[in-house]
Design goal:
This protein is α+β, with helices and mostly antiparallel strands. Helix content is 24%, strand content 19%. The structure holds FE2/S2 (inorganic) cluster.
Length: 305
């Protein structure tokens, strides 16, 4: 094998089409010694990453505290990343070489010279370390699938059918039935179906408007000329619509500032909500209390399916 003036070997490098090319002139070649410290570090970090993956998966499935599974995720990712980094560090030789411009004289390389390049091997990988790293990545990756279990049960018909039904009285959170006169002009109250207080899908806002409602409000479902009720579940993402501005009949959702015009069928006038709040069919029973004439006829909450 030929050498350069500094005593470093010259090796032949084949070109892409397999024909011999110029020689690689190796400036320096440093093969790091096998390091047990590095291997131990990779194994240790792999174990940490695997344990953190397990902790993340278990705590998020069992509904553990955010700092715990968030911390496990962060530490696990860091440990895995550093283990990969250390696995490849100190494992391959650092070779600094230059390839001189191709000369005609280089075309006469011998097989011995062109085969020298193949003699440069990375340090053999230790299978234990590699397996540990792969196992840690697998366990950690499996842990990341745990959030799938938190998606909860299928919604089913719960957004199409609520606890409202014909004849159900509207009651306050304290359970008191309401008559139209219980609300002053411009007044608003959160109401529930009797027997289903705090059923969030049925939460409803009862309003007495200061002005007469207009279409597309369903005027058949307006009592006493100005008392009506809308679903409290925002049609954007399901937050409870809560803030009422009597001056212009604007109902606000605090989550993303969707605004609904309660005088005109709770149509959205601002923000990301695209659908009106469903209106509850409203009437009076024999004793003069406000009752539902049936369930909502439109789907409550965000549109889906
Ligand atoms: S949930 Fe109401 S605006 Fe987004």
């Amino acid at each position: 094998m030929s050498t350069n003036p500094g005593g470093q070997p010259k090796v032949g490098a084949p070109t892409r089409d397999g024909s011999p090319a110029g020689e690689l002139e190796i400036i320096s070649s440093e093969v790091p010694p096998a390091s047990h410290v590095n291997d131990s570090l990779v194994i240790g970090l792999s174990i940490v990453a695997a344990v953190c993956g397990l902790v993340f998966g278990v705590t998020i499935t069992l509904g553990g505290p955010l700092p715990l599974y968030g911390g496990a995720l962060a530490i696990g990712l860091l440990a895995l990343a550093y283990a990969v980094r250390r696995f490849f560090t100190d494992r391959y030789p650092e070779i600094e070489a230059i390839e001189p411009r191709l000369q005609f004289t280089d075309m006469g390389m011998t097989d011995e010279e062109s085969g020298d390049l193949a003699e440069i091997h990375p340090v053999g990988r230790r299978s234990l370390v590699r397996r540990m790293l792969i196992a840690a990545a697998a366990v950690f990756g499996a842990g990341l699938l745990a959030p799938v279990s938190t998606l909860g049960p299928r919604v089913g018909n719960r957004l199409r059918q609520t606890a409202w039904a014909q004849g159900k009285r509207l009651v306050t959170t304290e359970g008191n039935p309401l008559r139209p006169d219980d609300l002053p002009p411009g007044g608003v109250s959160t109401v529930w179906p009797e027997g289903a207080i705090a059923n969030e899908f049925a939460s409803t806002l009862l309003l007495r408007l200061a002005t007469e409602p207009e279409p597309p409000t369903n005027l058949d479902w307006v009592v006493d000329g100005s008392v009506l009720a809308y679903s409290k579940v925002c049609t954007h993402a399901g937050c409870p619509v809560a803030l009422f501005r009597e001056r212009d009949g604007a109902l606000f959702c605090p989550c993303h500032q969707s605004t609904f015009d309660v005088v005109r069928g709770a149509q959205p006038t601002f923000g990301p909500a695209a659908r009106a709040l469903p209106q509850l069919p409203l009437g009076l029973d024999d004793e003069g209390y406000l009752v539902a004439l049936g369930d909502y006829t439109d789907q409550i909450g965000p549109a889906y399916g």
